[in-house]
Amino acid sequence: MTAADLHIDHLRLGYDTPRGLHTVVDGFSLTLEGGHIGCLLGPSGCGKTTVLRAVAGFEPVRGGHIRLGDQLLSAPGVHLAPERRQVGMVFQEYALFPHLTAAQNVAFGLRRQPRPAQEARVRELLGVVGLAEAASRYPHELSGGQQQRIALARALAPAPALLLMDEPFSNLDGATRQNLTVQVRDILRAAGQTAILVTHHEAEAHTMADRIGVMHNGRLAQWREMARPV
Ligand SMILES: Nc1ncnc2c1ncn2[C@@H]1O[C@H](COP(=O)(O)OP(=O)(O)OP(=O)(O)O)[C@@H](O)[C@H]1O
């Protein structure tokens, strides 16, 4: 299967406030080739999270459109429900379910699959993130980096067409953060996973990205293609 391209065209996003519509993103366009990793950089408040939330289906689109492969996800008056978008997410706060084990967390998005298929997929993903031995541990028994690897395994388990990551490493300290960035990049590349990462860290963007975009005044100032070392 060929991974789907993401197309965002002249996107306009905003929030309704008591003083009227507060437009945050205007004229934002990008194309991300299937199987590639794109990074959005930019100052605090420039609209990076708002763009990710719109792609995930948590914000309505005021103008322009978002398309994943042949499927129109969002446009004015068009809104595919988040659970029908095949979009996975990993956030800054680990957001694992504290009362579920690592394996149960990873299985969460697989509830509709038969039990044996679920178990096989959970084993596979725990192996991919290098935490096979942590299957029966609870989140509070895992380090921050381990929790974030479980969150990644959980997001990848249903094989999303697109993975969104919003500052996924920002709660981690220096060496852990650097190691995890490289590990996650290698996992995503090996899986041919299309992904968008939002970060404040230019070095992180350079480690991860096939394309880097800098957001400025609600649009993308550049969308640079980076060489992938062979
Ligand atoms: N629910 C909301 N209601 C009104 N305004 C909002 C809401 N959420 C975000 N905003 C505003 O939208 C703008 C963009 O916010 P957003 O969170 O997308 O920025 P960001 O680039 O992700 O910032 P950061 O890097 O600090 O996370 C900000 O000015 C913010 O105050």
Describe what this molecule looks like in 3D:
It is a single chain. The protein contains 6 helices and 11 strands. The protein is α/β, with parallel strands linked by helices and 230 residues long. The protein has a domain at 36-49 and 82-223: 3-Layer(aba) Sandwich (Rossmann fold). The protein has a 6-stranded mixed beta sheet, sandwiched between helices. The longest helix has 18 residues, at 174-191. The radius of gyration is 18 Å and the shape is globular. The model has no long low-confidence stretch (mean pLDDT 91). The site of adenosine-5'-triphosphate has 12 residues, from strand 1, strand 2 and helix 1. One of its GO terms (molecular function) is ATP hydrolysis activity. This is Iron(III) transport system ATP-binding protein. Keywords: ATP-binding, Cell membrane, Ion transport, Iron, Iron transport, Membrane, Nucleotide-binding, Transport. One of its GO terms (biological process) is quaternary ammonium group transport. Pfam families: ABC_tran.
